């Protein structure tokens, strides 16, 4: 597997799970900030779906993140088979059962997002079109998958920009999001627009798929205990998105495969 730089994440072989468990408070705090950057809305949407108002959801989320800074916060992650997604969903659900607003206990350890970004959470949630059958747990998993895939696409985009291939990325992005095959897409038109032959386009797509899978595996690796869990976690997220989109930002979540056309 080729190594691809992790953008704003620190260069390290530690997974996000390992860094959150670190006895070094600086490492754990940075890991928590990374977690918030990628999955804040996932956690927020779960809390809102549990019936909390926007202001209470913001407060509860802040307190929950503070709790995660405790050196022992992730000791029981094995309850979720070492998967950060499962652990956070379970831990947040338990936390909300006993949570009470108490301004005197709040400490500014986790940097809050600016008010305009907090407002964007509320505005985004207001546009959701959930069904009655969409439980907080299902929403959590779908939003987790959406956030993960956004991170994968952002990293692939950054890699292509660095290599001077942004036009290629933009042209192939719908193909990647559709599962990685050219079937259903105007292959000749895409190739012509890029000044490439169809054969060259297929070679470029194959390389894109290779980089996509490498980044996807790396991102999932950050959220599981063991490399052996990566395939199962990807399969689970694919299953969560096996049904048609139900709300504003959920699309079928598929890991592109080689040989599709």
Structural class: mainly alpha
Give Rg in angstroms. 20 Å
Number of helices: 10
Strand content: under 5%
Following the backbone from N to C, one meets helices and strands in this order, namely HHHHHHHHHH
Number of strands: 0
Biggest pleated sheet: none
Oligomer: single chain
Can you give the mean pLDDT? 79
The shape is: globular
Helix fraction?
55-70%
Low-confidence stretches: 1-13, 103-110, 248-252, 255-261
User: How many discrete domains?
Assistant: 1
- Rounded to the nearest angstrom, the distance between the terminal CA atoms is 24 Å
Keywords, please?
261 residues; 59% helix; disordered N terminus; disordered C terminus
Written account of the structure:
- This protein is mainly alpha-helical and 261 residues long.
- The protein starts with 15 loop residues before the first helix and ends in a 21-residue tail after the last helix.
- The chain has one domain.
- It contains 10 helices and no strands.
Brief write-up:
This protein has ten helices and no strands.
Layout: helices, strands, pairs:
Blueprint: H1 16-20, H2 25-49, H3 54-68, H4 84-98, H5 115-126, H6 136-162, H7 166-177, H8 187-194, H9 198-221, H10 230-240
Helix pairs in contact: 2-3, 2-6, 6-7, 6-9, 7-9
């Amino acid at each position: 597997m080729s190594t691809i730089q992790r953008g704003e994440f620190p260069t390290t072989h530690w997974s996000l799970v390992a860094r959150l468990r670190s006895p070094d408070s600086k490492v754990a705090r940075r890991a928590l900030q990374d977690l918030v950057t990628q999955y804040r809305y996932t956690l927020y949407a779960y809390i809102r779906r549990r019936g909390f108002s926007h202001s209470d959801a913001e407060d509860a989320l802040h307190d929950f993140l503070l709790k995660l800074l405790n050196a022992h916060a992730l000791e029981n992650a094995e309850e979720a088979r070492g998967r950060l997604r499962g652990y956070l969903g379970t831990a947040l659900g338990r936390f909300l059962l006993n949570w009470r607003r108490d301004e005197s206990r709040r400490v500014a350890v986790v940097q809050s997002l600016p008010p305009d970004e907090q407002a964007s959470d509320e505005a985004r949630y207001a546009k959701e079109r959930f069904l009655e059958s969409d439980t907080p747990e299902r929403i959590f998993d779908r939003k987790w998958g959406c956030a993960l895939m956004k991170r994968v696409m952002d990293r692939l985009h950054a890699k292509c920009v660095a290599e001077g291939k942004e036009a290629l990325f933009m042209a192939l992005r719908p193909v990647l999001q559709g599962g990685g095959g050219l079937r259903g897409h105007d292959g000749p038109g895409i190739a012509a627009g890029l000044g490439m032959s169809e054969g060259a386009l297929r070679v470029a797509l194959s390389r894109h798929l290779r980089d996509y899978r490498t980044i996807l595996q790396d991102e999932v690796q950050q959220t599981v205990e063991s490399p052996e869990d990566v395939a199962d976690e990807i399969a689970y997220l694919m299953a969560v998105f096996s049904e048609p989109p139900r709300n504003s930002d959920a699309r079928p979540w598929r890991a592109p495969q080689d040989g599709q056309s």
